[in-house]
Amino acid sequence: MMDRNPQHFARSTMSAQVLLALAMMAGQAHAQSRDAGVDNVPESSTALDAEAIKQRVVISGSNVTNRAPVLVSLKATQPQSIITATFIEQAVTPLDDFNAVARIAPSIGAGVSPNGPGLAETKVTLRGFQDGEYNMTYDGIPFGDTNNPTHHSTSYFPARIIGGMVIERGPGNASNLGQATFGGSINLFSKELSQDRHFTPYATVGSWNTRMVGGQVDSGVLDNFGDAKLMFNASHLSSDGYLSYNGVKEDNFQFKFEVPLTAAVKLTVFSTYNKIHSFTPDKSGVTLNQVAQFGKNYSLNNDPASQNYFGYNYNDKHTDFDYARLDARLGGGWVLENTLYTYAYDNNTFSGQDASGASANGTKAGAAGNKNVPGYNKLNSYRVNGDIIKLSNHLEAGVLRTGVWLENAHSDRHLYDIDFTLSLPNPKEASAPKSVSYDQQSSWKQYQPFIEFEWAATPSLTVTPGVKYVHFKRALNADVNQGTRIATDAEQTYTSTLPFLSANYSFTPEWSAYAQTARGFLVPDLSMFYVNNPNLSKPSPQTSTNYQLGAVHQSSKLSLDGDIYYIDFNNKIASTGLGNDLVYYNQGGVVYKGIEGAATYYVGSGFSLHANGSLNSAKSKETGLSIAKVPQSTTALGLLYKANGLFGSLIAKRNGSQYAKDGEPAAYKLGAYITTDLSLGYRWKTPGSMVKAIKLQGGINNLMNKQDATSISANSKGAAFDQYAFIPERSATVSLSADF
Question: Which of 4, 321, 523, 578 is the least crowded, having the fewest Cβ atoms under 10 Å away?
Answer without folding.
Answer: 578
